[in-house]
DNA sequence: GACGGTTCAAGCGT
DNA sequence: CACGCTTGAACCGT
């Protein structure tokens, strides 16, 4: 539990699993039929621009010494010509700037002029416009680098980013839910719809300034399910293109500057070794992503070269295949931190066409790469004992009581406390709860629950979950279909009662004592687990408190559900639906003897997990189940955190409960 | 089901 | 302002 870490906690994911070496396929070239089309070199400008371009011609010739040269056939490549192509591409880019009357500055310190450092207080990052106002729809041109972001600001930024992503997800999931009835119509792209809605409301982040370097509030390892989401938070501004940059026409010295790149393996000549990337420039491809032309040093390619020249770092986002993402095409985007471009050359790609290549080095001293953590989690899912098997105390502390096993992992000390408790997969309520709640009334639906369903009406004429089981809107309490309903077990209104879906792990951490994380990526809005224990009435609680046992008070959890699915920023005059008020909860959970995985979750005031009360097996509003949902996409192996609603100085007491 | 092709996208730079 | 470009995503057919 670390209340001073705004970014939740970065659990120490197991180190030492080597990053897979993704070497390019070494296919033998057929040198005799290689045909290379050259751009027309006749119109090369003859005047010597004499710009001292700091062209490193060494790597040009190095590239040319590769076995791309052939000795036979019509397409003989010679080094001089390739160098000429390179030089030509380069001068074209510069000439364009000269025509624009932009000064070409050769002082590498121009970096200092091109980029204005901005401190957190100067940024108007926090000023969300009032609902309905359309503002700042286009990107701004000023290039800045965020500096001196203090801890309170970081926490603030993190919160703004989290809320923004929550709105994005809410709108997206609701858009998807609206479309569910239409089978004949082509489905609306919910990812695009959500971003468009937010853009028209001025809810995209970081559009007043173009940020080079880290984006405040976004941590290395954060996972995004859609390209558009990257645009919404300002991490990468291009919906499709891989290089985002400030165009020369807008920069202060007339030169384009790259800000971020997405590495997703779309170019055959890319090489990704984790800390070192050989990134291909863009262009030269046909509609089927085949390389059919030479690339030119313009647009993003030129921006990359200029960024290298000035030593300006770029953000790297990796597109990674991820099995099991329900709604997406099986790809997620992970922010992997800042890289420096250290080399740039013009090479002949596998296709035989000229390709710009950029060598990127990851800057030292950053948090562990998100894509590496994804890889490790993948290996752990495949073989739970593949890393430090001696530290795996148990493969399932629930001893088969949950649908999936819960690992217990400790590579810090010899403590194995979680083994000493009886595992309780569901909260146990006093018997009177079931009797005093009147007749448990269920719905009469057959096959599936639809509009007329009684449970649907009880939830305020809403289904609480999307078709894929994501929480749509936080409510004081949610009514799931239960044992007295006639609908089948696979009914969409039965989510939490089915129990755990993700492979969780209780792990030992130096910062938080025990913590909980998942081996799976958990989507925002997904159910995680119940917070169980033995339910005690107030009278029983008072007695137990005197005997010094560990009690959890459900009414203390902060009401984060109010934020989830709240569309007040999107819909003009949006009023949160008026829910039937529920009486203040007056019970406690005794976790001193029987507990489940939930009580090892750490506290944070910027949590990634929230509480939603749910009823299904009885109708007593005073005693709902305490269900935990993901408030954001939680990457694998990142520690869960929950706002216990305690002041920081009470934390020591909270730690006692969890340890 | 895994693919590859097709279609419809959206923002941005020019 | 319209157009062209782009390492998307859903859908359809094989």
From TrEMBL:
Domain annotation Pre-SET: ranges: 441-499
Subcellular location, in the record's words?
Answer: Chromosome, Centromere; Nucleus
Recorded GO cellular component terms are: chromosome, centromeric region; nucleus
Which residue ranges does the record assign to the SET domain?
A: 502-645
* Annotated region described as Disordered, given as residue ranges: 1-25
The record's section on Gene3D superfamilies has: SET domain, SRA-YDG
Give start-end positions of Polar residues composition bias. Answer: 1-11
The alphabetical list of record keywords is: Centromere, Chromatin regulator, Chromosome, Methyltransferase, Nucleus, Transferase
Q: What class of enzyme is it?
A: transferase
Q: Which GO terms describe its molecular function?
A: histone methyltransferase activity; zinc ion binding
**Superkingdom in the source lineage:** Eukaryota
The biological process GO terms on file are:
methylation
EC annotation from Swiss-Prot or TrEMBL? 2.1.1.43
Limits of the YDG domain: 213-362
Name-wise, this protein is Histone-lysine N-methyltransferase, suvh protein, putative
Organism annotation: Medicago truncatula (Barrel medic)
Identify the gene encoding this protein: 25482708
């Amino acid at each position: 539990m670390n209340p001073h870490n705004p970014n939740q906690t970065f659990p120490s994911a197991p180190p030492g699993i080597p990053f897979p070496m993704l070497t390019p396929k070494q296919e033998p070239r057929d040198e005799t039929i290689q045909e290379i089309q050259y751009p027309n070199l006749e119109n090369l400008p003859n005047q010597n621009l004499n710009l001292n371009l700091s062209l490193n011609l060494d790597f040009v010739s190095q590239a040319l010494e590769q076995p791309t040269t052939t000795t036979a056939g019509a397409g003989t490549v010679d080094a001089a010509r390739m160098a000429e192509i390179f030089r030509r591409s380069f001068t074209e880019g510069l000439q364009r700037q000269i025509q624009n009357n932009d000064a070409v500055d050769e002082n590498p310190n121009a970096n200092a002029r091109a980029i204005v450092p901005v401190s957190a207080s100067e940024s108007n990052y926090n000023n969300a416009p009032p609902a309905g106002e359309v503002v700042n729809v286009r990107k701004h041109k000023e290039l800045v680098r965020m500096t001196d972001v203090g801890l309170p600001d970081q926490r603030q930024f993190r919160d703004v980013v989290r809320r923004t992503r929550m709105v994005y997800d809410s709108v997206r999931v609701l858009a998807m839910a609206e479309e569910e009835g239409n089978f004949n119509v082509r489905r609306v792209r919910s990812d695009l719809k959500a971003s468009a809605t937010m853009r028209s409301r001025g809810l995209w982040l970081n559009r007043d300034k173009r940020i080079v370097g880290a984006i405040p509030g976004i941590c290395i390892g954060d996972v995004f399910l859609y390209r558009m989401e990257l645009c919404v938070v300002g991490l990468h501004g291009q919906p499709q293109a891989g290089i985002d940059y400030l165009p020369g026409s807008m920069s202060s010295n007339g030169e384009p500057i790259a800000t971020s790149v997405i590495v997703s393996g779309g170019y055959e000549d890319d090489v990704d070794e984790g800390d070192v990337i050989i990134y291909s420039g863009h262009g030269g491809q046909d509609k089927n992503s085949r390389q059919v032309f030479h690339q030119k040093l313009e647009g993003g390619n030129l921006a990359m070269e200029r960024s290298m020249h000035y030593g300006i770092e770029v953000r790297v986002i990796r597109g990674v295949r991820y099995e099991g993402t329900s709604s997406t095409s099986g790809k997620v985007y992970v922010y992997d931190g800042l890289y420096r471009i250290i080399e740039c050359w013009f090479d002949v790609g596998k296709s035989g066409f000229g390709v710009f290549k950029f060598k990127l080095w990851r800057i030292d001293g950053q948090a562990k790469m998100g894509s590496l953590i994804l890889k490790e989690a993948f290996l752990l899912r495949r073989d739970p004992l593949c890393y430090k098997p001696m530290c795996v105390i148990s493969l399932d502390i629930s001893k088969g009581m949950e649908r999936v096993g819960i690992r217990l992992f400790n590579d810090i000390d010899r403590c194995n406390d979680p083994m000493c408790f009886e595992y309780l997969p569901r909260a146990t309520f006093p018997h009177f709860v079931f009797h005093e709640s009147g007749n448990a009334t269920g719905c009469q639906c057959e096959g599936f629950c639809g509009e007329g369903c009684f449970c649907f009406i009880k939830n305020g004429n809403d289904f609480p979950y999307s078709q894929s089981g994501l929480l749509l809107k936080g409510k004081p309490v949610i009514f799931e279909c239960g044992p007295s309903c006639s609908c089948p077990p696979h009914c969409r209104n039965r989510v939490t009662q089915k129990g755990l879906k993700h492979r969780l792990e209780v792990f030992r951490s130096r910062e938080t004592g025990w913590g909980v994380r998942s081996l799976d990526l958990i989507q925002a809005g997904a159910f995680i687990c119940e917070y169980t224990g033995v339910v005690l009435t107030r009278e029983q609680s008072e007695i137990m408190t005197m005997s010094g046992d560990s009690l959890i008070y459900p009414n203390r959890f902060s009401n984060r559900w109010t934020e989830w699915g709240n569309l007040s920023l999107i819909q003009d005059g949006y009023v949160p639906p008026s829910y039937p008020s529920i009486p203040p909860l007056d019970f406690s959970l005794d976790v001193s003897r029987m507990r489940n995985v939930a009580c090892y979750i750490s506290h944070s005031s910027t949590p990634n997990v929230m509480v939603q009360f749910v009823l299904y097996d009885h109708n007593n509003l005073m005693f709902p189940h305490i269900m935990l949902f993901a408030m954001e996409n939680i990457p694998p192996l990142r520690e869960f955190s929950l706002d216990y609603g305690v002041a920081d100085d009470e934390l020591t007491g909270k730690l006692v409960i969890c340890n």
